[in-house]
Amino acid sequence: MKKFIFYCIFIAMTLNINAQVNLVPNGNGSYCRTPSNSSNLIELENIRGLDHVNDLFRVKLYVHLLRKQQAPKYGQSIENVNRLMKVLYDDYDPLGIYFVWDGEIDYIDNTNYFEHPFYYTDPAIFPGGTSPIFNTNNHTDGIDIYLFDELLSQDQPNGFGLANGIGESTELIVGGYWFGDKVIPLSKLKVISHEMGHVLYLWHTHHGTYVYIDENGNDWENDGDPNSCAELVNPATDPNDPDYLEQYDNKHHCGDYIYDTPADPNLLGNMDGDTCNYTGTFTDANGDTYQPNTGNLMSYTYPTCLDDFTFGQKSRMKNALWYLPVLNQTILTDYTYIRADPGNGCFICTFNFFTVYTSHNASQLSISSSSNILVETISQTNNTILLQVTSLLDQNAEGEQGYINISYNNEVISQPVWVGKPQTLPDNVLSGTETVYANQEFNYGIGLDNRLKGIDTYEWVFPEPYEEIDIFYSNPNPNIWQYIQWSKYFVLTQGLAGNQTGIVRVHGLNPCGPGGEGIENEICVLNISDPEGDTNCDSGGGGGQDEIIYYPNPADDLLAIDLSLQDYKVYTVVIYDQYQTVKYSDQSTNVIKTIDVFNLSNGTYYLHIYDDNGDTILSRILIINH
Question: pTM to 2 decimals?
Answer without folding.
Answer: 0.72
